[in-house]
User: What shape does this take?
Amino acid sequence: MNSQEKIIAAKAIALVDVNNCYVSCERVFNPKLNGKPVVVLSNNDGCVVSRSAEAKALGIKMAGPWYQIKDLAKKHGVIALSSNYSIYGEMSNRFMSILGDFVTRAEQEIYSIDECFLDLTAYQQLFDITEYAQQMRQRVNQWIGLPVCIGIGATKTQAKLANHFAKTHPDLDGICNWLTMEDAVKNEWLLKTPVREVWGVGRQNTKSLEAIGIYSIADLIASNPMQIKKRFSIVMARTVMELQGIPCLELETAPPAKQQILYSRTFGQRMSDIDALNEIITVFASRAHLKLRQEKAVCTVITVFIMTNRMREQDPQLSKSHSITLSVDTDDLIQIAHAARIALAKIYKTGYDFQKAGIILTGLSAKGRQAQSLFDPEPTDLAKQEALMHALEKVNSRFGRKAVGIGVSAMQGQAWEMNQKARSPNYLTDWNELLRVH
DNA sequence: TCTGGGGTCCTAGGACCC
DNA sequence: TCTGGGGTCCTAGGACCC
Assistant: This one.
């Protein structure tokens, strides 16, 4: 084969992602942040979820608890921002749609808020796909101001890896095409890159791999997938094969139906009282129920979990969950909230400071022609309920008693009309009145 | 005291991802 | 004092049945 000939791979998968996504979004709206160390914090300003290059250079770690780094950050003039997910979501939509212009619908998988896979296999015949990727990168930057890097490989895992190299080698100008790189360079990089950089290899697996002498990505590629499967799992075996260039993971171009709906929060303060937890779980149930409706699905299993703060090793620890399986599919709020309370009662114990709780709806299926429950809120009520819940979060994102109490009262106000048995003395029956309160 | 074997379903929990 | 949230997939082990 002549070296001028184009390299046509069996598959060419690209991974495009936004660099430091949340920080980059903030910078689009506030260019003064450019060139400065910036971090974006999670809910409750708990920990760092996005860092600018300047913040990374200061040694600020991803998911680091903010209270521990605050002093260091202040000293170096780090700008800390609370997260604004609706802005990030909107930017994400535009990002995905710009990339969508370069491929067909069946060639794009939206993988997360800031990443997507593109199948460029068919375009290899037509263009130099490295240049094609460069056009994507420039267009995203020109149109919406977000910086991106692109990795190209024979499989999704290879594309992820190439993307990592695109980020860590500035001379590549944001694009790393694994398919056209020289073997000597590839081998050198694989030898000196630790195995933990591989997609699917986390902390625990890194330890276990090192224990059997696998340190670099080159070591992992040289391993036998069947033996890896025995020692680890089918998942890790797939990772090895994908690194070797054998595709095991399909592009998922139509988002699969959700398998579970989860709503959970860490409390601002610790909580040990069953009544308070009951109120919180009821609010969580209604949030999860809203998502269930938006998904146009029904569920059969309601799971509730509560846990203490694992970080406080000096405190007694408890982490429990309980599932209730209903005999019929439901998307009825009252039924779900009721099951959630029963589940909570099963796992609750006195004498513990709980710090986090959640509800998970599983056994999901598409909603068919199901009879409407008498308890179903009308669509308008649903909208009102959503408005109320947003107001609630705004009023007290840390789940203070007062705000949660009102939220629960709202639900009980609805139930009241049906069963004449409100359990809260301060319930309100009028939605408009509720909304006025906030 | 002795105490099978295989299949299935469910629950709990671990590991990973962004 | 203060350590995110929302997902997926896999596995071990118990309950139950024949």
